[in-house]
Amino acid sequence: MAEQFVRVEFYSGHKAEERPVRILFKGRTLEITDVEDRWYSPGATYFRVLAVSGDRYVLRRDEGQDVWTLTAYRRLSKGAAQTR
């Protein structure tokens, strides 16, 4: 999957852009229910998030350019969706 630029709405607590709460791309708004993981690399912060749909996304925030990209996506499996 090639990285896609996305718009992210975020919660700002004691520091700016503390955690994402919504992803906006391709005319859709995806509500985030959980930030499962966060890690840092030089110049970027990554977030693995869980959407209301059960799908998982990895978001990357480039700190120098203040740009968000969608770097990975994992769809909820059909079997898991049926047990919900």
Could you describe the 3D structure shown?
This protein has 84 residues and is mainly beta. It is 6% helix and 62% strand. The chain contains one helix and six strands, in the order E-E-E-E-E-E-H. It has one helix at 78-82, and strands at residues 4-11, 19-25, 28-41, 44-51, 56-62, 67-74. A hairpin with a 2-residue loop joins strand 3 and strand 4 (44-51). It is globular, with a radius of gyration of 13 Å.
Brief sketch in words of this structure:
The chain has 84 residues and is mainly β.
Q: Kindly estimate the percentage of residues that lie in beta strands according to DSSP.
A: over 45%
Radius of gyration: 13 Å
Strand order of the largest sheet: 1-2-3-4-5-6
Count of DSSP-assigned helices: 1
Range of helix content = under 10%
What number is the mean pLDDT? 87
Cα-to-Cα separation, first versus last residue: 27 Å
Low-confidence parts: none
Overall geometry: globular
Largest sheet: 6 strands, antiparallel, barrel
Helix/strand/pairing class, anyone?
Answer: mainly beta
How many DSSP E strands? 6
The secondary-structure element order is EEEEEEH
